[in-house]
Amino acid sequence: MMVDLAAFGDEKYDAKAWLNVACRGRLPDDPLDRYLTDLEVKLQLMAETITADLDEKSSSALFRVPRAARDVQRVRDDAITLRATVSAILAKLKQADGTSAESVAALARVDVVKQRMEAAHETLQDAAGLAKLSASVEEVFASGDLPRAAETLASMRRCLAVVGEVPEFANVKRQLEVLEDRLEAMVQPRLADALSQRKVDSTQGLRDILITIGRYSSLEQHYTRVRVRPLRRLWEEFESGKSALPVGTSAGAAKLPATITGPIGGSVSFAEWLPKFYDEVLVQLEQELKWCTVAFPDDYKLLVPRLLVETMSAISSSFGARIEAATEEATSEGRSSGGVGENPVAEKGRSSRLGLLIVLHNMTGEFAKNVQHLLSDFEASEVARVLKAVYVPYEGYKRRYGELERTQLLREIAVMDIRGAVPRGVGQRGVELSETVGRVEASVPELVVALESAVDRCLTFTGGSEAEALLRTLDEVVLQYVSSLMELLKSLRPLCGIDRGSPDKKDAGPESGGSKGNTGSNTVDVIPEEEEWAIVQGALHFLTAGDMLTARTSVFEATLRSVLTKLHTRLQLSIEQSATWSVGPDGGSGPLDMTVLRLADLPDNGRRLMNLLEQAQDPRFHTLPQAAQRIAAFTEAVNELVYEVLISKVRLKLADLSRLPVWSAEEEDNAFDLPNFSAYPLPYVTSIGEYLFTLPQQLEPVAGGVGGSGIGADGGEENVDESQFLATEWMFKVAEGAAALYIEQIRGIQALNERGAKQLSTDIEYLCNVLSALSMTIPPVLSTFQACVSAPREKLLEMAKQEGTHYDMPSLRLVCKMRHVSID
Asked: Where are the domains of the chain?
């Protein structure tokens, strides 16, 4: 039974835990009490052994302490002696330093003279060697030994650098430059042949020669010029279709073809051919990288990127021309097709200039990703140069992105069916109005989809760098769309029987602030009763379109602000990482952000963009400021149209109220003293009352559609309450407008006799009862008219002279004038 004593020295020692562990180590057949007894005896023996050993060690230590104390005292005395000796030595050194300073200065002067003499000796040797090399260099060149010639020229360069501007060697400097040019000219054809045939040893030897004479730039130029030819041949394969030009057509005068003819007569478009070109370039680039790693182990990280940069620069102009030709062809095909497919908007998008540009740009983006992966071990600055060269053909289009996007969106909006209403015959106006409103409602989601697609195109094509142009374009396009809706709204006015061209009528409706706004005149023709409510309901459904447009554009603006916020975060992070960018898989930063690279070359655009993105963080920021105002104006115009449609029947009934003969008709004599006026209200006011009573039932289902058209509505009681509120609101608007129109017509009555006054009192009382039944407050002006026309003529003067009267005094005076009562 072994006992581990280390457990007893642990700070976390627990006797119970140790005992449990020890018990688990006993044999199953051993009794527990016997095992514990043996363990106790063993621990006691070990404790006694430890105690005895400790006593022995302590006694021994006590015997050694006096001896150690004596040794410490002896060491202390030796240290004191050593300190005195060192002090004496330091004193002697200080004395020697003072006496030897002059000697050291003299030796320094002698050393300087010696160094100058040695430099003069070396210069004389170099001068002699330079003269000897200058005399023998022609022999070296004649031998054809290019490495030796390079070493000779390098030695001459070193000697000439030591000699300096000595007039006697001025001609040698010029000779050296000529000889270096001569040697470079001799190396060029051999280097071109070695690079073409991929001869590693020859290429390395010729590289060493050029580096020896300081012509490394010549190596880069020759390498690029030779190795770029296979890549350019790949690019020029697309132009093979020009050989099929008609007789009499010069290839130079013809535009670059958008398609080429294959071996079996098929036609391949540029968009179909471009990925194949990129694949071939990647294959050759990978092979070139492997060969350069062997041939130029110290230079391949500079040569390979330069090769790709020079290749893309060489084909940049032709690339742009082919893009232009392809987009022109796609645009012309889109015009000729006319969007006959099932989804004309989508067809227009695919056949547009911008759509094809994005397709080509995405292909280039995939190529750029593969290039970054291939050059993962290269410096980020070199990879950035390559990527910029790859994307150069698209830079002009990116700068014109706003114009291209505007053209795209206008084409998509032009496809939408938002034409105005077409006048129809009697009985079909409600159908035409309903169809027109349906077209407007259907166009709103299409508009939002088009705007969202524009945002996606901007992020895909420009990486968000043209966000400012995007917002400006979206604002202009939505503004034009709403302007089209405003024109459509004008076309509905004749269809609804509304003519706002009459200047002699005034609108007293609440939408125009009482009696100051313009109103429409009477309808040009009488609308049949069976079609009247169809027009009303069609006009009310226009509220749904306006509500949908406001809600959907608000949601789109919120989404757009979210997109701008994410773009701001991404660009800030990329800018912070740009100083430590590493393209490699272990670099930590990942691929280079082309948006940041592009903005680095356009600092003014970058500052404006970042300023815009910072402003977009504010929730009050309007991404579509002008469009939002125009949409609000459109909503107001819709409300005005709906109001005029709803009030048109009231206006029609009240059109000739002030000129009715009943107000000044002569009284008829009767033998029984019966009332000489109708005890019932006249038909014009009863028809208005019936109209107002039936209006809530007509408004509720339509208002329910308006209330439920909001984006994100949850339905249920909330929508029901909202629809009821809208129905009540519009009922009050119409009722207030009817009361205001009625008051305006009463004011136009020129004369009012007793019979007319009593009849008018009956009519006003009926209308007041209708308004009260609709839970409306009676206007004070109408109450004044009712009180004044129902009172006898002799009491009008008394009413006018009462102090603190609650009557509307201008209306009271007007009634006195109508009833020929002088109050002066």
From this structure: 5-159, 215-240+258-399, 402-632, 654-685+731-818
